[in-house]
Amino acid sequence: MGQFSISDLEQLSGIKAHTIRMWEQRYGLLRPVRTATNIRTYCESDLRRLLNVTTLCSRGQRISQVARLSDAEIQAAVLACCNDVHDYHQQVNALLAAMLSFDELRLNLLLTEASSKLGFEKMMLFVAYPLLQRIGLMWLAGTVNPAQEHLIAHLLRQKILAATDALPSVPATARRWVLFLPADELHELALLFMNYVLRARGQHTLYLGQNLPLEELNAVCRTYHPDAVATVLTTQPERGRVGEFAEAVAACCPDKLVVMYGQLARQEGLVLPKNCVSPELMTDFLALVGEHAAEPVAA
């Protein structure tokens, strides 16, 4: 599929461009092709090999030794050494390499092991989210296949649902949240994880998922009487209509907390209603949940 520039490789692997060139020239590590204007471009196999080599070198192996290994030997060595639970960069590189190979079994193994060793929430925060950020960069550069992105999203969705199902039930008398995505919004992973962390902290959630028209939210709020509402704005609504959307959501549950997560809710110059907040990071959302957990539940 698409081609990578050396700056793409630098950004995705964390290895400086001059180091990549040195490895290429001295050890024949990568096999770039040149454009008509004599610019080096790299393919998926080059990126996959670089990610795996970076993982091994970060574990103290010498590049001169690693470069002599075949791709199969490198992959086997990566699987054998991915046991440092706190080396998040290494784990993200291993997952990216597996994604590029459509290696579902390896992806599942790496995610399962990270969750087992770190705990599910830390796995999501320190491994899965950095992985998704890298994939986002690749998407913007046109260097990720939609099928690869869907593979990762599907696996993570399964992990979040399984982890949520394993939580103890929460009584409806606990603090209540409504979670939904705007009309035509289909990117669900962040909202699913928010649902997990709320339930893990003893909050009751009414999860309404993707593509919810605002008139339906209004009816839900009148019946369910939530203490807070949360949504994620990834592609919807249109950038120029976010303020209008925020006002409409706030009107559905006046004087209740409204959380709007996502870049569209943090655009420069946007003024949100007084009961709306827009956490920059997922860790900020977790802190917000902790602050409001001690407040009395509405009658």
What would you say this structure looks like, in words?
This protein is α/β, with parallel strands linked by helices. It folds into two domains: 46-164, no CATH class; 176-293, Rossmann fold, CATH 3.40.50.280. Helix content is 55%, strand content 11%. It has helices at 6-13, 17-27, 44-58, 63-66, 71-81, 88-100, 104-118, 120-140, 146-165, 189-200, 214-224, 242-252, 282-293, and strands at 33-34, 40-41, 176-182, 204-212, 228-232, 257-261, 276-277. The strands form two sheets. A five-stranded parallel beta sheet has the order 4-3-5-6-7, with helices on both faces. Strands 1-2 form a two-stranded antiparallel sheet. A hairpin with a 5-residue loop joins strand 1 (33-34) and strand 2 (40-41). Helix 6 packs antiparallel against helix 7, helix 7 packs across helix 8 and helix 9 runs parallel beside helix 10 (189-200). The radius of gyration is 22 Å and the shape is elongated.
